[in-house]
C-alpha cells in the first residue's frame, strides 16, 4: 500500500533519517516509536509530503509520490495530524472539518462569488463529510462549539476529524495522546481502534508505551534516524536493541530488566485481549 525504499533526509550536516526501508500493511495499526530525536516526526513529514527526501523514494499504491506536493499527496489518500494541535480555534468543530474536505472539491473563487451549482453541491458534500468525520470521532454533539472552547482531548479529536474529512486511505497520527490524561488516553485509544476496525489504515507516533502495546498490531523502531527493529509488540518488547536505544549503554542492568519486564507485561496483556 505505502512503501518506502532507502529513504533519508539531511538538514545541512545532520542526517535526520537514513536508509529506512519497509512498508505499511493496509488495514492494521502500525506504530513508530523511538527515543526523543529518533527522527519519527521527520519520517512522518517525508511520508506525507511535507519534506522531500534527499535519498530514496516513497511509493503509494504503485505510484511514486516522492516529489509530489503535499496537497496532491493528501488528495491521493494520505492524511496526517501533528504533535501540536493544528486547528482553527476561532472556528467551530464542524467548520474545521469542512476545511479538511475542501481538498476533494474543485470550486474556485468565481464559483463562490457567483454561487454556482458546483459550489452549492460541493458545499453540501463538504458539510456531509464533515459531520460524518465528527461522528466517527464522537464529536457530533459538539459540532457547532468553537474549537477553542473544547477540552484538549476534544481538540485532538477535531484534528483527527479534519484529517478524516479528506477521505484518507492512510491516517498518520503524530502523538495523538500528548497532553491528555490517562482516562482521556484510554478513550482516544478506543476511538483509534474503532477507526482501524472500520477499515482505515492507521500509523501513529506515540511516547506512551502502554498505549502502543495495547493498540498497535505492528511496531517499527527508529533510533538516530535509522530503523533498528520491527515486528509485533511482543517481538519488539524483547529486542535488546530497543532496550539499549531507550536506556543507553550505561544504564544499570536492573533498570534495563525492569523496562524489559514492563514492555513484556504490556505485550502479554495485548495478547490476552486478542485471545
From TrEMBL:
Q: Which GO terms describe its cellular component?
A: plasma membrane
Q: Where is the ABC transporter domain?
A: 2-249
List the Gene Ontology MF annotations in alphabetical order: ATP binding; ATP hydrolysis activity; L-isoleucine transmembrane transporter activity; L-phenylalanine transmembrane transporter activity; L-valine transmembrane transporter activity
Q: Which SUPFAM superfamilies match?
A: P-loop containing nucleoside triphosphate hydrolases
Keywords for the protein's UniProt record, in alphabetical order = ATP-binding, Nucleotide-binding, Transport
State the signal peptide span.
Answer: none
Q: Which InterPro entries match?
A: AAA+_ATPase (IPR003593), ABC_AA/LPS_Transport (IPR051120), ABC_transporter-like_ATP-bd (IPR003439), BCA_ABC_TP_C (IPR032823), P-loop_NTPase (IPR027417)
Q: Any idea what this protein is called?
A: ABC transporter ATP-binding protein
Amino acid at each position: 500500500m505505502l512503501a518506502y525504499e532507502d529513504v533519508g533526509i539531511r538538514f545541512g550536516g545532520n542526517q535526520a533519517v537514513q536508509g529506512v526501508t519497509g512498508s505499511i500493511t493496509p488495514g492494521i495499526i502500525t506504530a513508530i516509536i523511538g527515543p526523543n530525536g529518533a527522527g519519527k516526526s521527520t519520517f512522518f513529514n517525508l511520508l506525507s509530503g511535507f519534506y522531500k527526501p534527499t535519498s530514496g523514494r516513497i511509493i503509494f499504491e504503485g505510484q511514486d509520490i516522492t516529489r509530489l506536493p503535499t496537497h496532491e499527496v493528501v488528495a491521493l489518500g494520505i492524511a496526517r495530524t501533528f504533535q501540536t494541535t493544528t486547528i482553527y480555534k476561532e472556528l467551530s468543530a464542524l467548520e474545521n472539518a469542512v476545511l479538511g474536505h475542501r481538498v476533494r472539491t474543485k470550486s474556485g473563487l468565481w464559483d463562490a462569488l457567483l454561487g454556482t451549482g458546483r459550489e452549492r453541491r460541493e458545499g453540501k458534500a463538504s458539510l456531509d463529510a464533515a459531520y460524518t468525520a465528527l461522528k466517527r470521532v464522537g464529536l457530533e454533539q459538539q459540532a457547532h462549539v468553537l474549537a477553542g472552547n473544547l477540552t484538549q482531548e476534544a481538540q485532538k479529536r477535531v484534528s483527527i476529524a479534519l484529517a478524516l474529512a479528506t477521505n484518507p486511505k492512510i491516517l498518520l497520527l503524530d502523538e495523538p495522546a500528548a497532553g491528555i490524561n490517562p482516562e482521556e488516553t484510554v478513550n482516544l485509544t478506543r476511538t483509534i481502534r474503532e477507526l482501524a476496525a472500520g477499515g482505515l489504515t492507521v500509523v501513529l507516533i506515540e511516547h506512551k508505551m502502554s498505549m502502543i502495546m495495547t493498540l498497535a498490531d505492528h511496531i517499527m523502531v527508529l533510533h538516530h534516524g535509522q530503523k533498528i527493529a520491527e515486528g509485533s509488540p511482543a517481538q519488539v518488547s524483547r529486542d535488546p536493541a530497543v532496550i539499549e536505544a531507550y536506556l543507553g549503554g550505561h544504564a544499570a542492568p536492573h533498570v534495563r530488566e525492569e523496562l524489559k519486564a514492563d514492555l513484556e507485561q504490556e505485550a502479554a496483556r495485548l495478547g490476552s485481549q486478542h485471545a
